[in-house]
From TrEMBL:
Biased composition (Low complexity): 122-132
Residue ranges of every copy of the Phosphatidate phosphatase APP1 catalytic domain listed in the record: 226-373
Name recorded for this polypeptide: Phosphatidate phosphatase APP1 catalytic domain-containing protein
Pfam family, one: APP1_cat
Organism placement in taxonomy: Eukaryota, Fungi, Dikarya, Ascomycota, Saccharomycotina
GO molecular function: phosphatidate phosphatase activity
Amino acid sequence: MDNPNSRRSRLLGIARQTRDQYLPKLSTTVSSLTAPVSAPQYDNFGRLILPPTTQIILFPTYTRANVYDNDRRPHTYDVHVHGWVSSPGTMSRKNRLLVSLARQVIKSNSPALPDLDQNYGSDSDAASVSSSSTTYSETDDIIKQRLADFMARSIAGATLEVTIGSVNPEDEVKQITLETDGNGHFKATVSVPYPPSIIRVEATNDQRIFAFQEPWIVANDWSTLGVISDIDDTIKMTGVVGDKRELLRRVLCGNLDDWRLDSMIEWYRRFGSNCSFHYVSNSPWQLLPIIQEYFDRTQLPPGSFHLKQYTGNIIASLMEPSMSRKRHSLEQIISDFDQKSFICIGDSGEHDLEAYVDAAKQFPTQISAIYIRFVEHSLSDVDDDRIFKEVSRMVGNHNKAVGESRARRRGETEFIHDGISYPVSNPQPQSHPPATPDPQDVDLIDLDTPVKPPKPSALKGTPLKPKKPQHLQGNEIERDLPPPLPMRPTAPPQTPPSVQQPVGFAAKTNDEIIDEYYFMELEETDKRGAQWLLRIRAAIAKLRGSDTKLRLFKDSDPDFFRECDKALVKEKAHVQQLLKHHPTNLRLTREERVRLGL
């Protein structure tokens, strides 16, 4: 047995005493960091007591100015208020896992550390280690900064007072009281009879917790244009279609200069001050600070932002389908500004096409154009260019018809389509025979088949099917035998397609695909490409008869941006001409908008 007075016994005693004193403190500290939030506390009036670290964030919204009089002054203003109440998050188990995952992703994409065994100079070794350590430290700081709002604790049930200030200090300002929802968000529309000057939101039981912003006033009249735009992969390189690891790396620690899409940025800047921008994105609200920093750096036009609630998974939040969620924001913006015309801009990496087409069908006189930016590897599993050309061909006739219809209503004698000037034709009565098809429409039909004159109506029977191209015809079969089931092709045909077929899809008109053989082949070899053609065909069917143009474009196509710039200048000139005849009537019915070519 050890002597209690021995050196070893004394050391063991000190160790036990230190353990008994240190471990409870350590356990308490860890528990305080990882334990769930304590039960909420309330004051004597039943209001939630907010932590001293509580912050209120106001999101960029718009204030609608409406009901004009003869002096073109609005009578009322509808102020949209939207914000979030939260407090900084603790290092809970979930948050620690989030930070750890982010670090692992970043390390897997960072260049490898230098091999110190191959560096013989001690000075250079120290410099390399110091440089690498500094780089990782800076990256770690960026990750923590961008994850801060994801780890923040939303405060539900907080009572807030919203005050809408007035430009005239003698006006009696309006105040309302509201509570935050389960996600810590609050939203309201406050109508005031005076020009608003400031939006102030503060906690009712702690005036030290407040936020304010200047309202962004947008007139609801047809003399200005509205632009509804996506953000990710439309004006900011995000990479939603690409590798998920690279997507997360770009979001959490990517350099803002690497997000730039210069051709889009320059295009948006050229729209001018007569346009209001509304950014509807699939990004969560927690990314708003870094998005605003990107906007400030690139000098993109300011506007209202319409993002989404965070679902607890960053990648899933960015990747999930956005059409249904965006539909509500689109409906609200377009209906709030029912006198405006809008241009909708998105990208091929998400379902912006369907969301915008549905909006155009719901508001047929307000969506003048839908522009979809091409994202690499989003159109096809095999050949993006092939599908891009086919899509461009399919929308050709539709856009041409829309351009001619607008020019006819405006009393113009010609219109521009794809850089070519066309005369405006007079609409033909229905009893007249159909006009000769455009060569671009018939160059995909078997031209070896002679065109027969129309049969008299008295002799007409069941319509005959058009003759199948010669190189696709098989051997004759007996009439009394049922035809054999067609075999799906398992490999591309040995005979190359005719040079008259641009990309191998025979079509009767530019917005149809009728050759089942080629489409079956595409479904076998390029499912994504086949799906895109079906999506475009469905979009054109919904837009048929509307006044909405549809266009897919590439950043490398200067003709597209040049054509859009000319169209914008022409549209502004048309509006100025109309203002001379309607200087005070800034509210028009749908019929008046159609008649005036708006």
